[in-house]
Each structure stands twice: as structure tokens, then as C-alpha cells.
């Protein structure tokens, strides 16, 4: 009581930021979910959650989220002005105009109270019409007192479950003026009633009748808004005109503040620590112990904020309800971390600390503008010295105080400043700059990193880039120490001096940790500890910034980038590393101290971490624990004073720890289940889930759930019950029956999710704690997942019965199957024999077809040349054309024989969009001559409009040819055959019909007509033979096009074949004209060209074709021949001048594919182009040939003119390349023109490389390969392709080219040029020059001079 009174009596004292309790106010606004910015009352329910009465409904807050209950949830009015909690936990709500209601926080049920009888049951009160303005709850929570606007007071006793018993009026027997409005009502712990009015304070003692006015209160107390009891008969009254103390027994009223002070008070609160909070129209005032009152800013803008409600919860957190800005809350528990904010105190002439030390009863702060002395209570600055250097402020980086009380200040750029005499006060305190003799002064600007003094009054000075200095404060002797026992002492970051052993430890920027043994100002011995790559027992980083020795005598080194190191074995230099792997979440150690009480390590980085020396565990502290380090801590700012207080600094001020007053967290919280979801559906009280109510109370109350078999996914949200401290909480949980150990929830997360749980019983357990505090009791919730019906006993019995029945049926079936097995085996064997016979037939047809293609090729080639010869008489040419067409027809039949086996396996289509009309017309024209010969009327009926169809022209042509061939076979003279084409645009189909009036087909044969090898009796009867494959293949082709083919026929009347193809919407591509596949009657002329210096090698085992090809190419180039691949390979190895190889594929000894492979894998031959000729037309065989490296793949029969032109193109290109190359090498054409024309810089690059090494006689192929970064084989092929030369020949040509340049552009003599380009033998050089240019060097100079004169005259 005395403490409170004394606080009130010194209320006039000035506010001091450093002596006050820090208020880290957190806020909840409309933006965070609050329903209204005006908070009028605050309560805490029995579970510990916070409820807020606002002008827009009731708000629930659990520390994480807000729930709003308003008129839509059952409230009669949203404008709540007062709220009280009774003994049963019900919340009593007073609205502006709608009376009184109760809210059950457990069930969310709302009850409106309107009509109540008096105690005798004679009078009925309508509460809504009583004009209730204020209300208060008795101390026990068993009675509610109401105050109306007309000064009437009502008493409403409550039952244990919160139901009103009756309503009774308490007469207000004192006559007051009508304008003396009521302002408050209060019931103290003695059940005494207090009523505050606009003027005066009124009191009714418990058990007495009638109210009494406190003497003179009508004159002194104006607008009594809040009353609280202090102790005994002493009360504190907040009014419009100030704060007053009222003594009940002696009827005295004393104003606490006589000068300008706190007025317009709305609410008062006495905390559990007997501190006083005052809320008024300006904001919030805090009165604590003997400290001066502290004004708390409620808003960042520092605007005035009306405070209407104050509440302290069971966890000692303060909640502040404001007008217009929502809710504020804070934790008043004293923090273990104290903060000194230099910015907020105008008495300090600096913003932050760069280093720190102490002398006598003062702290010395090194700053950006000199050194500053402050008292140890940090109340104000006592003295400062800017340490001016040429009118510039010195930034102080380190401070030391010697045993003789000299003060040393190291600066960034201006060296060391030392007090002229030992410190004895501020009067004679002067500093002078230490002058370094120029003989040992290393840096131009003296940046001092650290200074420390030893027992001999030596100052050890570590500089940024100048090494280590030793200065004796008594003798004034100074020396520079660059090395200690061959160990460099440059770039020292930090130092630790141990007086008992006279040891000096150095932390360096790149030399690790150094131990120096001192003797006076001499270094007796030195040892270095450094990081070793791959050695986990070495120092983790050579960048050491902090060094301490703990109580056990172990050295600890804090590094930048390597975290923390402990020197566990100094003799062997063994370190133990501490980093993320063992709980330290700091890579950069900015500060390191050892406390005096426990010997624990305190580590500063982005925050502060404590290392428990006994448990070997790390505890990280953050802002929620009181650490102020939004921008982290800075190096060299850690300091421990003589009393053991530890300081860590940064631009956010100083954070210090008084380890002697350290308070361990002992608050034990409760953890509740906040929400449960089953299969991702939240359980809501009284709501149905899958047809039944699973939650019939609040989720934190219900402890067991029975779930259906398919309800296997469970999500549980839990929360600690201390709403203001939820961010500080951590949780562990496990699901017994599923988890084997406790699982830790990640930071900021309080959810547990389990999916696809098996049927069975589970118990979910969760516990939590405040950061580093004791664990809460375990909260348990049970879940039982029923078994599905098939796992229950009756299902199992049913399954056993079914199993027995099934086994019986299987036995019966097995006996029956065994009887059929023999029959099936016999049928299988018979089928295999049939398939074997068919396979032999197919193999025979394939072999015959392959043998036929070679003679057909010989026939087609000459016929093709004759047909194209215009000089032949037309009648002869027409007959030869007929032979030519029949040869093509025979080839189609052979192709059909060779391809049908492929159709039996797979059918590959090469579809393109075609104009159907000209395509069909071309086929029609091919058969017109035959129709005239057989005297058959042959007609084509089709629309003239273009009809584009997507199909494989070659295969569809084969099908139509087959159908027309059959029609002509079975139609007699004077018969009729018609091709009819029409389109059904609605169905997107095209129909092609081949109609004849021939023999027709038996009705019984129509369903077999498309079977393989089937032939009708009609065919046999008229002696017409076939393979029986045509229609089978036709059906395969049409079905592959997603179409269909049908036949309609009557014996003796004729047959109609109908082809139906889809009209597909295919990609927009060019329509291919018909002449792409059908040779027009035009003469192809091959441009004449002779390549006398080039040779083509022809490889063919068929002598006829070989002679034909030789004759075809003999006028074009030189021709060599071989009959197989082995012979050809021998020729190629002997004659390297071969320009092209044209080879058949099917040959003895070595086939064409193997020959191509041998050529393309031989580094001397693989540049030679290879053409393969073959009767294998399938894409698979073509791909096989091309994969071996073939440059072209030509199928038989081939067009001679096409083949000849392809050969000419290859030879012409090669000759052009050689001419270009020769011109470059003989200086007749510029190299840049060659590169531009060839679109390749290869020649320029290789010439440049060779020319760079020309004087080197050892210039060889390997050197060129290495410079180009290519394999020798790849470079050889590229060189052959570009120049036609080998690598050795190319190097020689470049030498000659350079010789020509030097002859024309320099005055060197021939023997000098020879040596210049790498020739040691001048005679050999002359010979090579003549071979290259075709003339001697002197002739070359003369010729080029004449040519130059002619060009000059022409220009």
C-alpha cells in the first residue's frame, strides 16, 4: 500500500525513458479482423481466451485469430457498451438500447433478459425500458448491479449457473440535481456499492440501507468515471478533473496531482504487482513502484487516443481497449533483457555504441563522434570528448582502461588517443594522440581494430592493415611487431589477455587464432591454430572475431562464417565445432561473453543465444523475449562489467543482461484443441457430419470421437491459452497408435495432420510451453475409427463360406477344363502347322519378288530412256510406252508380293493432303488404252469441284489399281466399267466406287472375298490366276486410313466395290498435285558436265546393272567398279582420289550397309559420300542404311536421270570447294571471300593457328588438333570436307601460302623466308614452292608484279 501511495505522491516527477518499463504494445485493429475500432469492455473466459465488447458486436481472440458474434449470430444489438463475467463463466452484455443479454463462451448460446420479477414476485420489471447506463459485477460474481440514467440502482442476484433470481431496486435516497448525470458504478470486495456522478461520489455500505455522499465530493470530484480499491479503506478515483485518493473512514479526499497532470480519466486498473494503469482521453499512464509515471504512446503517429477499457488477464498481460484505434496489449512481466535506446533520449549526443568499457562508476561509450561517459543507470550523459583531429570527429572503434586507470581510445583512421593522466574525474581529463615514429609507421591512416592492456601497463594495439604495436604507458616506448616466431600478425580483429598466465590471444581476419606468451613487452612463444580443409577437428574458419575462456578453462573462438569453436585439446590443437547441426543457428558470431553465475556462453549475432555449459544445449532468444536487435548486433560491442552485467550493442541501442537477476520462466500454460477437421470438414457444434452430430459441445471440451471407416483423414489445430503470448509458444504432439515419438511443431505452426489412418483406436496428445519454460499438462483426445463391414466378424464368416463354395466350383471347373485341354492342344498343334505352312508360302513369295526386281530394273531403265527419246517414231514410241507401263505394272505386282508380309505385321502410312479428282483421273487414264483394247466402255464420274483428301497416295493408288485390274479381269468385251466419286459433306466421308457388269461373285463368297489367299470359283473357272492377296491388302490399307471397303455383287450381273474414306480436318498444309507420284510424259535433260579429275566407285554384284551404271556415268567422270564390298574397300584404301561411292545393298562377302559402315568409321575414308541402291523399299531398311552414315538412299527401280544428276551435284560441289581452296592457298582469292561464300570460319581459324606456329619446326598434326579442341578423326573429316586435303598437306599448303605473302610484302631473302616459315632445308623449300605455285619463287615474284601493274593501269 505504501508503495502505491509513494508512487502517487511523486507523480510530478519527469518521465525518464531509461528508468521506465518498456511497453512493447501489440495491436489488433479492423485490418486484423476486429469488427469495430471502438473497444468498450474486455473479459477473459474460463479457458483463458479474450472477449472484446465493441460497437459492432462481440469479438473472440485466442492469440491467433478473431471470431465475431453479432446480430447475425443472435445478438439483439451490435452496440455493446459494457461486459462482465459471472461466477458460472457467462458474459453479461449491456447494449446501448436493447437491454441486457448473456453469452455462453462454451456453447455460444445467447440469452436475452427482458422481464424479471422482484424478490416477492409482485412487481414485473421490463429491463429494456429501465434505461440501464452502467453495470458492475460483485467481487464473487454472484450478483449484478445496474445503474440507470435516472440514478436508480438495481440488484440482480444470480444462481450458480448464471440465471437471474430476481430484480430488486436499491433506493437512491439522496436528492440530486437533474443535470447531475450518473457516470459509473463500482462494487468492491466488501460488497460496498459506489456510484460516481457528474458531481460527487456516493457510497452504500454492505448491509446498510441508503446511499451517502462522500463529504465535499460534489465540489471536488467532477465526472467520476472509475473507482478502484487500493487497500483497507483507501480508494483511487479517476475523474474528469484529475486523480484522487479517497479515505472512507475519515471521509477525506486528496488530489494526487496539484499541477498540470492527468485529467479526463475514463478507466483505472490495479495490476497484480500493485502497479496502477490510468486510461484517459490522451492515452495510457503507467505508475510502477517508486518510478516516475510513464506515459505510453498508443499509436505510432503519437496522436491522442481515448482509452475506455483496461484489463489484466490471468497471465499478467495488460489489454487496452481504445476508441477509434482498436485494441492494444502487452506483457508486463519483467524481461531478462534490458534495452537502452540512445535515440529516444535527447540527453545523449550519439545514436548507438561502437564499443564500450568502464572506469570507476562510469560507462565509457565509443561512438561515431568520440567517447562519452554515462552513469551506470544510463539516466543521462555526464561527459564527452569528440577527440577532434583536424576539426573532424573521431569514430572510436575500441576502448581500454589500464590497471593504472589510463583510458585508451582507438579510432578508425586517426590512431590511438590516451588520457594524459590516470582517470580521477572529468575536470582534468584530456586526451592526446599517440605519435608513431615514422620508422615503424606502416599505414598512412591508422585504423585500430582492438587495444588491450596487460599487467605491465603495456598497450597492445591491433591495426587493420599494419600489424601489432606494443606501447608502454610508463616508459612511452613503442615497438612494431610484424611477426611472432615466423607467424604473421597482420589483420588482427580481436584480443584476449589473461593476466594470470600473461597470455595474449589474437583473433585474425585470415590467419586463424594465435596464442602469444608474453614476458613484459616481449613475445616468448607463439602458436597458431588454423582451419584445415577436410579436418573436422580444426578451426572452422580463419576469420576469428571473438575470444573468451570459460570457467572450465577452455578457449572459445567465435568466427565469421564458421560459427563457434571450442579448443577442447589445446596441446593437440583439437577443436569442437558448434553450428546448425548441433543447435546454433548463427554462422557469424559478432559477440561472445561468459556469465559469472553459471559459466554459460552468451552469443550475439542476428539475436542472442545462450549455450548451457552443463546441458550442452543452445537457447535462442528473440524480440518476444525482450531482445532488441532488428538489425542484429555488431562486432566489438560486447562487454562485461565488474558486476557481471553483459552488454551487446548495435544500431538499435544496447541490450544488457544482469545475470544475477535472471528470472527463469516458470509460467505453465494450458493447451487446448482449437479445431478438428475430419476428411477436410471442420467439426462445428451441433452441425451434422455424414448424417450424425459428431460434436455436441465445444471442441476443447469433447475428449472422444467415434468415426466411420471412411473418415480416415484427421486434422487437429491446437493452441496455448495465453492469448498475448501465443507467438512465444512451442508445441510437441503425437498420435498414439500411429506415432512412436513426440513430434515438434515447426515455428509458427500449431497443426497436426494425419491421413489414411487404419481402423483402430488412437489417442492424440499435445503439450506446449512458453519459450524455454516448463511444459504444460498433456491434452488428450481419443479417436476410434470403426472397421469397415468386410473386416467385421459376420463378414469374415460369410467370406469363409463363399471361399468354400468357390473352391468347390473351381474343382468342378478344373475337371471340365482338363477334358477340354487335350482337344485344345490338338487344335493348337494343327494351327501351328497351318501357320508354318503360311509362313513358308510368304517367305517363298518374298524371295521370288526380290529376284524379280533386278531384271525389272534392267528393263525399266532402258525403256525409260527410250520413252523419253523424242526422235523415235510415234507408233514405235507408243508400243514401247505400253511395254514401259506394263513393266511398271509388273513392278507394282512384285511390290505387292514383297509388301504384303509387311502389311501382315504393321502398316505405316505417309499421308498428305491431295486433290482427289486429278489423282483418280490419272489412274483412269492409265487404264483407257486397256479398255479400248478389250472394247470395254470405261467411264469416270466425279464432281468438278476440288475435293481435298488426306491419304497415302502410293497405297491408295495400289488399292484402286487392284480393284480396276480385277474389274478388267472379270468383265467381258462390250462390257461396262465405271469409276464414280462423290462426297457426303454432312457425314464428312468420300465414296469411291468401282462398278462393272462382269461375271459377279457368288453370294456365299462375299463374306470371304477379303480373306487372304481366297480366290472365287469364277476366277478358277475362267482360268484367271492370282495370289489371293490383293483384296486382303486393300482392306488393310483402307482400314489403316480409318475407312472401310465393301462389296456388292450378284452373280451374272456385275460387282461394285465401294471405298469410303474420312474427310479429316488436318493441319493446313499444301495440297500435293498428282504429278508428284506419276511421271508425266516429258523429257528430263541432265546438264552436261565433265569431271576428269574425279572418280566414282560403282559397287554392284549384278554385272548387267554394273555395266549399265558405268555406261550412264562414263561421260561424266572416271569410273571404277567392284562386285562386292570387300573388293570396293580394297580399292578405296589404294586409291585415295575416290570422290563418291555408289553401292548396291544386297551383295556377297560384304553387303552395302557393311561397306558404308566401314567407310564411315575409317578416319581416312569417312569423308567420302556414299549412295546406297536397293530393292528394299521399306522405311525401316532406308533408316538402317542412313544410320550407317549413307548420304543418300535410292530405291530400285531408279530414274537414271535422277541418279546421274545427284552424282553430278556431288562432284560439282567438291570441284568448286577445291577451286576455292586452291585460289586461297595461291593468293588468288581472299580468305574472307572464301569464308563468306562457304558460310564457315573453319579455314580462317585453322590457317591462323598454323601461321602462329610457322617458325616452329615441330609444328605437326597433334599441335593443330590440340589448338582446335577437336579429336584427330573429326578434324581430319572436317578438313577433307572443306579442302579435300589431309592435315599434313594442309599444313604444308599454309606454309607455302605464307611464303608467297612474304615474297610479295617483305624484303626478306628466300632462305630467310624458308627459315621464317619453318623450313630448315632451303633446297627442299624451293622444291615445295614450285610444286605449289607451278613456278619458282623468282618467276612468281615477276608474274605477280606484272599482274599488279596491269591492275593499276586498268584502275
From TrEMBL:
<dbReference type="InterPro" id="IPR011123">
    <property type="entry name" value="Y_Y_Y"/>
</dbReference>
<keyword id="KW-0547">Nucleotide-binding</keyword>
<keyword id="KW-0812">Transmembrane</keyword>
<keyword id="KW-0067">ATP-binding</keyword>
<keyword id="KW-0902">Two-component regulatory system</keyword>
<dbReference type="InterPro" id="IPR036890">
    <property type="entry name" value="HATPase_C_sf"/>
</dbReference>
<dbReference type="InterPro" id="IPR009057">
    <property type="entry name" value="Homeodomain-like_sf"/>
</dbReference>
<feature type="signal peptide">
    <location>
        <begin position="1"/>
        <end position="19"/>
    </location>
</feature>
<feature type="domain" description="Histidine kinase">
    <location>
        <begin position="847"/>
        <end position="1065"/>
    </location>
</feature>
<feature type="domain" description="HTH araC/xylS-type">
    <location>
        <begin position="1244"/>
        <end position="1343"/>
    </location>
</feature>
<dbReference type="InterPro" id="IPR003594">
    <property type="entry name" value="HATPase_dom"/>
</dbReference>
<dbReference type="Pfam" id="PF00072">
    <property type="entry name" value="Response_reg"/>
</dbReference>
<keyword id="KW-0418">Kinase</keyword>
<keyword id="KW-0808">Transferase</keyword>
<keyword id="KW-0805">Transcription regulation</keyword>
<keyword id="KW-0472">Membrane</keyword>
<keyword id="KW-0597">Phosphoprotein</keyword>
<feature type="transmembrane region" description="Helical">
    <location>
        <begin position="793"/>
        <end position="814"/>
    </location>
</feature>
<dbReference type="Pfam" id="PF02518">
    <property type="entry name" value="HATPase_c"/>
</dbReference>
<feature type="modified residue" description="4-aspartylphosphate">
    <location>
        <position position="1144"/>
    </location>
</feature>
<dbReference type="InterPro" id="IPR013783">
    <property type="entry name" value="Ig-like_fold"/>
</dbReference>
<keyword id="KW-1133">Transmembrane helix</keyword>
<dbReference type="InterPro" id="IPR018060">
    <property type="entry name" value="HTH_AraC"/>
</dbReference>
<dbReference type="GO" id="GO:0000155">
    <property type="term" value="F:phosphorelay sensor kinase activity"/>
</dbReference>
<keyword id="KW-0732">Signal</keyword>
<feature type="domain" description="Response regulatory">
    <location>
        <begin position="1095"/>
        <end position="1211"/>
    </location>
</feature>
<keyword id="KW-0804">Transcription</keyword>
<dbReference type="InterPro" id="IPR004358">
    <property type="entry name" value="Sig_transdc_His_kin-like_C"/>
</dbReference>
<protein>
    <recommendedName>
        <fullName>histidine kinase</fullName>
        <ecNumber>2.7.13.3</ecNumber>
    </recommendedName>
</protein>
<dbReference type="InterPro" id="IPR015943">
    <property type="entry name" value="WD40/YVTN_repeat-like_dom_sf"/>
</dbReference>
<dbReference type="InterPro" id="IPR011006">
    <property type="entry name" value="CheY-like_superfamily"/>
</dbReference>
<dbReference type="Pfam" id="PF00512">
    <property type="entry name" value="HisKA"/>
</dbReference>
<dbReference type="GO" id="GO:0005524">
    <property type="term" value="F:ATP binding"/>
</dbReference>
<dbReference type="InterPro" id="IPR005467">
    <property type="entry name" value="His_kinase_dom"/>
</dbReference>
<dbReference type="InterPro" id="IPR011110">
    <property type="entry name" value="Reg_prop"/>
</dbReference>
<dbReference type="InterPro" id="IPR003661">
    <property type="entry name" value="HisK_dim/P_dom"/>
</dbReference>
<dbReference type="Pfam" id="PF07494">
    <property type="entry name" value="Reg_prop"/>
</dbReference>
<dbReference type="GO" id="GO:0043565">
    <property type="term" value="F:sequence-specific DNA binding"/>
</dbReference>
<dbReference type="GO" id="GO:0003700">
    <property type="term" value="F:DNA-binding transcription factor activity"/>
</dbReference>
<dbReference type="InterPro" id="IPR001789">
    <property type="entry name" value="Sig_transdc_resp-reg_receiver"/>
</dbReference>
<dbReference type="Pfam" id="PF12833">
    <property type="entry name" value="HTH_18"/>
</dbReference>
<dbReference type="Pfam" id="PF07495">
    <property type="entry name" value="Y_Y_Y"/>
</dbReference>
Amino acid at each position: 500500500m505504501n508503495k502505491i501511495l509513494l508512487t502517487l505522491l511523486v507523480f510530478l516527477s519527469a518521465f525518464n525513458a531509461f528508468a521506465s518499463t518498456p511497453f512493447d504494445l501489440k495491436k489488433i485493429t479492423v485490418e486484423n479482423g476486429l469488427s469495430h475500432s471502438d473497444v468498450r469492455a474486455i473479459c477473459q473466459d474460463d479457458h483463458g481466451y479474450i472477449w472484446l465488447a465493441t460497437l459492432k458486436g462481440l469479438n473472440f481472440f485466442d492469440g491467433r485469430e478473431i471470431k465475431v458474434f453479432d446480430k447475425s449470430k443472435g445478438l439483439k444489438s451490435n452496440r455493446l457498451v459494457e461486459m462482465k463475467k459471472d461466477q458460472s463463466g457467462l458474459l453479461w452484455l449491456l447494449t446501448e438500447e436493447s437491454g441486457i443479454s448473456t453469452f455462453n463462451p462454451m456453447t455460444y448460446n445467447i440469452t436475452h433478459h427482458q422481464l424479471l420479477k422482484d424478490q416477492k414476485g409482485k412487481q414485473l420489471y421490463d429491463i429494456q425500458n429501465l434505461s440501464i447506463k452502467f453495470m458492475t459485477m460483485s467481487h464473487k460474481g454472484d450478483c449484478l448491479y445496474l445503474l440507470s440514467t435516472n440514478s436508480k440502482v438495481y440488484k440482480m442476484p444470480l444462481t450458480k449457473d448464471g440465471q437471474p433470481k430476481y430484480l430488486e431496486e436499491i433506493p437512491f435516497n439522496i436528492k440530486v440535481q437533474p443535470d447531475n448525470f450518473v457516470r459509473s458504478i463500482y462494487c468492491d470486495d466488501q460488497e460496498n456499492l459506489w456510484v460516481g456522478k457528474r458531481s460527487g461520489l456516493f457510497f452504500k455500505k454492505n448491509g446498510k440501507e441508503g446511499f451517502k455522499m462522500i463529504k465535499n465530493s460534489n465540489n471536488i470530484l467532477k465526472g467520476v468515471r472509475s473507482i478502484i480499491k487500493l487497500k483497507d479503506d483507501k480508494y483511487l478515483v479517476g475523474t474528469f478533473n484529475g486523480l484522487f485518493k479517497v479515505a472512507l473512514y475519515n471521509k477525506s479526499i486528496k488530489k494526487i496531482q496539484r499541477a498540470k497532470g492527468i485529467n479526463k480519466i475514463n478507466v483505472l486498473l490495479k495490476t497484480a504487482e500493485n502497479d496502477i494503469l490510468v486510461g484517459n482521453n490522451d492515452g495510457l499512464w503507467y505508475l510502477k513502484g517508486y518510478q516516475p509515471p510513464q506515459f505510453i504512446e498508443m499509436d505510432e503517429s503519437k496522436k491522442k487516443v481515448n482509452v475506455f477499457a483496461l484489463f489484466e488477464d490471468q497471465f499478467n498481460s495488460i489489454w487496452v481497449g481504445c476508441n477509434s484505434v482498436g485494441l492494444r496489449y502487452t506483457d508486463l512481466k519483467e524481461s531478462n533483457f534490458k534495452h537502452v535506446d540512445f535515440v529516444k533520449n535527447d540527453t545523449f549526443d550519439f545514436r548507438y555504441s561502437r564499443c564500450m568499457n568502464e572506469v570507476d562508476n562510469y560507462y565509457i561509450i565509443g561512438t561515431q563522434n568520440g567517447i562519452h561517459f554515462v552513469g551506470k543507470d544510463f539516466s543521462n550523459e555526464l561527459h564527452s570528448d569528440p577527440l577532434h583531429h583536424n576539426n573532424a570527429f573521431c569514430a572510436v572503434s575500441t576502448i581500454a582502461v589500464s590497471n593504472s586507470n589510463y583510458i585508451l581510445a582507438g579510432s578508425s583512421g586517426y590512431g590511438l588517443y590516451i588520457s594524459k593522466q590516470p582517470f580521477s574525474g572529468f575536470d582534468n581529463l584530456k586526451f592526446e594522440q599517440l605519435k608513431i615514429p615514422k620508422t615503424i609507421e606502416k599505414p598512412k591512416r591508422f585504423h585500430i581494430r582492438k587495444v588491450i592492456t596487460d599487467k605491465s601497463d603495456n598497450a597492445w594495439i591491433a591495426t587493420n592493415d599494419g600489424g601489432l604495436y606494443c606501447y608502454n604507458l610508463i616508459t612511452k616506448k613503442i615497438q612494431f611487431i610484424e611477426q611472432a616466431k615466423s607467424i604473421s600478425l597482420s589483420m588482427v580483429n580481436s584480443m584476449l589477455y589473461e593476466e594470470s598466465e600473461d597470455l595474449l590471444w589474437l583473433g585474425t581476419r585470415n590467419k586463424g587464432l594465435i596464442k602469444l606468451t608474453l614476458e613484459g613487452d616481449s613475445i616468448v612463444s607463439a602458436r597458431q591454430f588454423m582451419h584445415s580443409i577436410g579436418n573436422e577437428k580444426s578451426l572452422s574458419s580463419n576469420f576469428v572475431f571473438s575470444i573468451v575462456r570459460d570457467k572450465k578453462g577452455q578457449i572459445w573462438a567465435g568466427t565469421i562464417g564458421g560459427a563457434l569453436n571450442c579448443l577442447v585439446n589445446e596441446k593437440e590443437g583439437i577443436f569442437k565445432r558448434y553450428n546448425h547441426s548441433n543447435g546454433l543457428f548463427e554462422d557469424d558470431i559478432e559477440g561472445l561473453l561468459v556469465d559469472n553465475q553459471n559459466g554459460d556462453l552468451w552469443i550475439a549475432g542476428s539475436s542472442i543465444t545462450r549455450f548451457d555449459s552443463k546441458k550442452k544445449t543452445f537457447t535462442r532468444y528473440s524480440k518476444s523475449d525482450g531482445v532488441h536487435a532488428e538489425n542484429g548486433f555488431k562486432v566489438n560491442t560486447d562487454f562485461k562489467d565488474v558486476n557481471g552485467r553483459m552488454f551487446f550493442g548495435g544500431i538499435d541501442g544496447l541490450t544488457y543482461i544482469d545475470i544475477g537477476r535472471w528470472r527463469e520462466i516458470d509460467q505453465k500454460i494450458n493447451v487446448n484443441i482449437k479445431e478438428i477437421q475430419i476428411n477436410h470438414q471442420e467439426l462445428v457444434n451441433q452441425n451434422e457430419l455424414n448424417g450424425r452430430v459428431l460434436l455436441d459441445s465445444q471442441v476443447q471440451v469433447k475428449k472422444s470421437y467415434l468415426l466411420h471407416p471412411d473418415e480416415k483423414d484427421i486434422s487437429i489445430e491446437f493452441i496455448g491459452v495465453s492469448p498475448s503470448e501465443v507467438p512465444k509458444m512451442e508445441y510437441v504432439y503425437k498420435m498414439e497408435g500411429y506415432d512412436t515419438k513426440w513430434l515438434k511443431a515447426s515455428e509458427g505452426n500449431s497443426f497436426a495432420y494425419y491421413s489414411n489412418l487404419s481402423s483402430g483406436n488412437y489417442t492424440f496428445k499435445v503439450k506446449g510451453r512458453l519459450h524455454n519454460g516448463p511444459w504444460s499438462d498433456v491434452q488428450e483426445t481419443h479417436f476410434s475409427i470403426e472397421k469397415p463391414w468386410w473386416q467385421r466378424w459376420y463378414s469374415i464368416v460369410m467370406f469363409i463360406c463363399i471361399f468354400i463354395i468357390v473352391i468347390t466350383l473351381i474343382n468342378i471347373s478344373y475337371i471340365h477344363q482338363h477334358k477340354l485341354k487335350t482337344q485344345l492342344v490338338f487344335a493348337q498343334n494343327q494351327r501351328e502347322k497351318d501357320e508354318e505352312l503360311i509362313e513358308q508360302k510368304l517367305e517363298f513369295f518374298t524371295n521370288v519378288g526380290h529376284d524379280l526386281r533386278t531384271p525389272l530394273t534392267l528393263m525399266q531403265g532402258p525403256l525409260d530412256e527410250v520413252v523419253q527419246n523424242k526422235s523415235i517414231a510415234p507408233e514405235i514410241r507408243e508400243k514401247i510406252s505400253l511395254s514401259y507401263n506394263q513393266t511398271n505394272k509388273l513392278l507394282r505386282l512384285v511390290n505387292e508380293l514383297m509388301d504384303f508380309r509387311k502389311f501382315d505385321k504393321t502398316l505405316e502410312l505417309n499421308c498428305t493432303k491431295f486433290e482427289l479428282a486429278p489423282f483418280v483421273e490419272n489412274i483412269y487414264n492409265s487404264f483407257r488404252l486397256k479398255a479400248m483394247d478389250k472394247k470395254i466402255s470405261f467411264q469416270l464420274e466425279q464432281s468438278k469441284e476440288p475435293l481435298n483428301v488426306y491419304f497415302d497416295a502410293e497405297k491408295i493408288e495400289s488399292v484402286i489399281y487392284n480393284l480396276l485390274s480385277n474389274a478388267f479381269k472379270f468383265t467381258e468385251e462390250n462390257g461396262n466399267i465405271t469409276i464414280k466419286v462423290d462426297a457426303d459433306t454432312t457425314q464428312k466421308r468420300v465414296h469411291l466406287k468401282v462398278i462393272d457388269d462382269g461375271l459377279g461373285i457368288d453370294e456365299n463368297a462375299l463374306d470371304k472375298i477379303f480373306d487372304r489367299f481366297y480366290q472365287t470359283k469364277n476366277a478358277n473357272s475362267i482360268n484367271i490366276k492370282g495370289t489371293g492377296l490383293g483384296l486382303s491388302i486393300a482392306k488393310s490399307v483402307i482400314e489403316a486410313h480409318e475407312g472401310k471397303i465393301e462389296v456388292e455383287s450378284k452373280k451374272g450381273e456385275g460387282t461394285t466395290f465401294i471405298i469410303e474414306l474420312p474427310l479429316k480436318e488436318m493441319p493446313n498444309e499444301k495440297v500435293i498435285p498428282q504429278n508428284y507420284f506419276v511421271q508425266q510424259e516429258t523429257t528430263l535433260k541432265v546438264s552436261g558436265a565433265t569431271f576428269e579429275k574425279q572418280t566414282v566407285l560403282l559397287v554392284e554384284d549384278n554385272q548387267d546393272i554394273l555395266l549399265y551404271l558405268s555406261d550412264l556415268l562414263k561421260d561424266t567422270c572416271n569410273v571404277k567398279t567392284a562386285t562386292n564390298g570387300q573388293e570396293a574397300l580394297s580399292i578405296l584404301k589404294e586409291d585415295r582420289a575416290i570422290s563418291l561411292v555408289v553401292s548396291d545393298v544386297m551383295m556377297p562377302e560384304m553387303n552395302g550397309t557393311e561397306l558404308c559402315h566401314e567407310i564411315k568409321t575409317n578416319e581416312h575414308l569417312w569423308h567420302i559420300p556414299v549412295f546406297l541402291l536397293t530393292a528394299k523399299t521399306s522405311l525401316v531398311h532406308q533408316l538402317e542404311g542412313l544410320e550407317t552414315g549413307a548420304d543418300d538412299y535410292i530405291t530400285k527401280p531408279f530414274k537414271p536421270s535422277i541418279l546421274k544428276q545427284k552424282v553430278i551435284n556431288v562432284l560439282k560441289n567438291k570441284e568448286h570447294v577445291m577451286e576455292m581452296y586452291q585460289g586461297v592457298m595461291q593468293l588468288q582469292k581472299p580468305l574472307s571471300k572464301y569464308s563468306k561464300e562457304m558460310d564457315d570460319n573453319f579455314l580462317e581459324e585453322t590457317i591462323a593457328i598454323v601461321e602462329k606456329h610457322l617458325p616452329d619446326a615441330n609444328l605437326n598434326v597433334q599441335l593443330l588438333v590440340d589448338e582446335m579442341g577437336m579429336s584427330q578423326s573429326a578434324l581430319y573429316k572436317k578438313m577433307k570436307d572443306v579442302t579435300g586435303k589431309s592435315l599434313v598437306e594442309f599444313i604444308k599448303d599454309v606454309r607455302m601460302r605464307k611464303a608467297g605473302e612474304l615474297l610479295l610484302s617483305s624484303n626478306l631473302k628466300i632462305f630467310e623466308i624458308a627459315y621464317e616459315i619453318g623450313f630448315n632445308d632451303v633446297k627442299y623449300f624451293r622444291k615445295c614452292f614450285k610444286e605449289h605455285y607451278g613456278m619458282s619463287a623468282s618467276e612468281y615474284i615477276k608474274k605477280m608484279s606484272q599482274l599488279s601493274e596491269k591492275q593499276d593501269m586498268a584502275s
